[in-house]
Structures are given as structure tokens and as C-alpha cells.
Design a protein that fits this description.
With about 150 residues, the chain is an alpha+beta fold. The chain has five helices and four strands; from the N terminus they run αααααββββ.
Length: about 150
């Protein structure tokens, strides 16, 4: 007489599927937490270009105080907030375009080319010097008077 085999109940398959699901979910969770804490890593030229674009956008939006906050410490020491705001009002920036960025040898400074268009339609080519200051990219030089 031969023994009868009982059909598989599917138990190993369910355990394997559950284990795979738990591992996939924990991997996604760890990746998300790492991204939130470490942030998206950008090369210096991209981060500096973003800083210039944000700076110019705030000028175009008519919020020179928030643009002033994006200046590096040395420039804020030399340039008074009210003088900067007065310059921004006189320039009346309507639009901007951010171009090429060149990283300095020390990788803590980047020169970013841009075109600023005033409300009167005149365009001006500008070179911004952007530096890494306490983990944030800040604009140091631009078209404002010193």
C-alpha cells in the first residue's frame, strides 16, 4: 500500500509573500527617512543656480527683504537692508534667466551667469558669485551698488 500525500496548503507561499512585502516596505521606509534627513544631494553648480534663481524670483516678486536674506554675511555687512530695498525698487526686475555655473577650485564658491530683465524691457547680463556659508548657498556679488 502506498502512502497518500496531502496537497500543499499554500502556507510556504504565503510566508514568502509576507516576508517579501515586509522587507520591501521597510526598505522604502529607510530610503524615505534617509532622504528626509540627508536631503537630496545636489552638485555645487545646481545648488548655486537654484540660489540665484530664488534670489532673482524674490526680486521680481517685489519682496526685496526676503532677497536680502539670501545674501552672504559679508555682503549684508557692507550693504544696508534699506539701501538694498531702494536699489531693488529702482531696478524693478520683471524677469530673469539663470545660465551657466562655474565651480571654483575650492568647490565652496560658484560663479553663476544670469540675465535680468527690468520692467522697462531692458536686459542686463549679470555674474553672481555664490558661496557655501554654513551649509547654505548664498549670493555674495551682483549688480547692486557697493
Amino acid at each position: 500500500m502506498t502512502p497518500r500525500l496531502s496537497p500543499l496548503s499554500g502556507q510556504p507561499t504565503r510566508h514568502l509573500a509576507m516576508t517579501s512585502g515586509v522587507l520591501a516596505l521597510s526598505g522604502c521606509t529607510m530610503a524615505t527617512v534617509a532622504w528626509l534627513f540627508l536631503g537630496a544631494v545636489q552638485p555645487p553648480e545646481a545648488a548655486a543656480s537654484t540660489a540665484v534663481a530664488t534670489f532673482a524670483s524674490r526680486l521680481a516678486d517685489g519682496t526685496p527683504d526676503s532677497a536680502y536674506d539670501l545674501l552672504c554675511a559679508a555682503t549684508r555687512t557692507e550693504l544696508d537692508r534699506s539701501d538694498f530695498a531702494g536699489w531693488a525698487r529702482r531696478q524693478a526686475l520683471a524677469d530673469h534667466w539663470v545660465g551657466a555655473a562655474v565651480v571654483g577650485a575650492d568647490r565652496t564658491s560658484v560663479t553663476v551667469g544670469a540675465r535680468l530683465t527690468g520692467a522697462d524691457g531692458t536686459a542686463q547680463a549679470v555674474s553672481f558669485e555664490v558661496i557655501a556659508e554654513q551649509g547654505t548657498w548664498r549670493v555674495c556679488t551682483g549688480p547692486w551698488p557697493r
